[in-house]
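Reply to thread "Modeling small-molecule complexes from scratch"

Following up on the discussion above, here's a worked example others can learn from. I took a protein sequence and the SMILES for zinc ion and predicted the complex. Inputs first:
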Amino acid sequence: MEPNPETAAVVQLIFQLAATGIGAAAVTRELFKRGIPTPGEYKAAHGQQYHDVSRSRGRWSSSTVLRILEDERYIGSYVIGRRAVIEVGGTRSRKKDRDKWFIIPDHHPAIVDKELFEKVQAVQRRFSLPTKKTREYPLKGKVYCGCCDHALSRIAQKRPFYMCRHSTADVNSRCRDVRADVAGLEEAVLLTLKKQLEILLPVHEDGTIHLEATAVKCSEYEKQLEVLKDQKQALFERYLLGQIELDTYKSEKAVYDAEILKVKNAYAAVTAQAKLKREEQARQSSRQEIVHSIVEADVLTSELTDLLIEKVYVFPDNRIEIVYKVHDLFE
Ligand SMILES: [Zn+2]
């Protein structure tokens, strides 16, 4: 980067314009209005060979402006490895990923101060975000014509809409009436999803009833065990007091022990069953959670539509029909 006062002034102007919050295209218009020569024109005027001066004469391109705006060499950094040579020994190259660059800060005098540079980065990021977002629409590739079963075309306008392009030539075709506002359609699909899912919201009754039943059974067994242990204790006391013989004690104790074992086994079985029921209920409630998150969603997202929706049909009377991916979820 040779310090050239003339070009340095242009670079500074570009940064100042971008920092006011206007986009790259608006910067190019401003440069054209002020008669600022493009890099190509500048080189040609100074006797350097430049291959397509005629094609870009007087017209700054947005990509040139963007390239200048993100070039850290203007804040005095030396950037190594920004481009990689495509063929061995060749001269063609492509831009490498940023994390493979080496940046040496304060390597040479800066043309643009760091504060202005950072401000421009922030402003330009804000510019590039919305366009990225609008490109990702949740019903992409899922909207079809209810008349002819062809995918509807998304017409990008200030208020984008879907229309059937398939039969536009045929004046009598009903497809001509198939037209849906994108935002409105997304809202209608979300509303329909919510209505469908609300049906699933009540807790599965079976699970609750079974858990209550097992709880009742468990406390019954606990009582039975207590009674049996008391009776066994009483038997032992009677033996200690000499009221019964050792043989009688032994045979009656065996009966109690067998009874206690039986109740203990039954108790264990019921507890294991209860554990299974609790696990099943946990599974159900996690499903409920997913359902809840859909019911509480404010906007239709690609995650939701990719998970649930196969197709959305639009009919001439604005009626819509949704073909779901997960059939058992709604049946
Ligand atoms: Zn159609």
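What I'd highlight from this example: Confidence is low (pLDDT under 50) at residues 129-135. The longest strand covers residues 309-314. Questions welcome below.
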